[in-house]
């Protein structure tokens, strides 16, 4: 079983849609959690950290469920510029990445 | 620019040659990570440092791979006797300390022909 698992997608959604990505992790000792965004042939860039209480940054909301070892990312009012791969990252003293979920937003 | 810097950005080498990549982390970042990424996959962990100490090396790495971080500043990743399967993007990242977010360099794209 992979340490961090994500649905690879792709998720094809129209502009304005709400889309949710899920991620599960296997190491219950994981300390911190993040979502990164990666554009084609570019480096990953931090989108947001994920806290147990949940956190929101504009149109983006991240949730963490430690009991179920589950992380989610919700994107509201999708924009064309949101098209990218979204990487779930779990920190177990080192950063472990999921394979990423590809999002394509169409007009 | 005070971000993570990697050099070179691109490297084409013949099979069997040795290559070395350099990473300069963000100043005062104690942790430095190396990852490898191939098309359609997430970054795969290779190794990481806390200051100058190498804390872990992936079991997936063969003995052809070695990394150093002398004096806890920049780091180098060397691949000896390159193989076509080594073709990938090699990413470096740094973080201020354990459990904090990491920031990536633009990567070194290696092509082994």
Give a structural overview.
The complex is a heterodimer of chains A (107) and B (113). Helix content of chain A is 0%, strand content 55%. By secondary structure, chain A is mostly beta strands. In chain A, the strands form 2 sheets. In chain A, strands 2, 4, 5, 9, 10 and 11 form a 6-stranded mixed sheet that branches. In chain A, a hairpin with a 6-residue loop joins β4 and β5 (45-50). The N and C termini of chain A lie far apart (37 Å). Chain B has no helices and 11 strands. Chain B starts with a strand and ends with a strand. Chain B has strands at residues 5-7, 10-13, 19-24, 31-37, 44-50, 53-57, 65-68, 75-79, 88-95, 103-104, 108-112. With 113 residues, chain B is mainly beta. In chain B, strands 2, 4, 5, 6, 9, 10 and 11 form a 7-stranded mixed sheet that branches. A 4-stranded antiparallel sheet of chain B has the order 1-3-8-7, with no helix packed on it. The model of chain B has no long low-confidence stretch (mean pLDDT 94). Chains A and B meet through β5 and β10 of A and β5 and β10 of B.
Sheet bearing the most strands of chain B, described?
7 strands, mixed
Task: List the helices and strands of chain A in order.
Answer: EEEEEEEEEEE
Oligomer: heterodimer
Report the span from N to C terminus of chain B: 33 Å
**Greatest interface (CB-CB under 8 A), with counts per chain:** A-B, 22 and 23 residues
User: What is the structural class of chain A?
Assistant: mainly beta
- Mean pLDDT across the residues of chain A is 94
Low-confidence segments of chain B, given as residue ranges, are none
Number of strands of chain B: 11
Quickly count the helices of chain A: 0
Radius of gyration of chain A: 13 Å
Give the topology string of chain B: H per helix, E per strand: EEEEEEEEEEE
For the CA atoms, what is the radius of gyration of chain B? 13 Å
Main beta-sheet annotation of chain A: 6 strands, mixed
Mean pLDDT of chain B: 94
Unreliable residue stretches of chain A: none
What class would the helix/strand composition of chain B place it in?
mainly beta
Judging from the principal axes of the Cα atoms, what is the shape of chain B?
Answer: globular
Total beta strand runs of chain A: 11
What fraction, in percent, of the residue positions of chain A are helical? Answer: under 10%
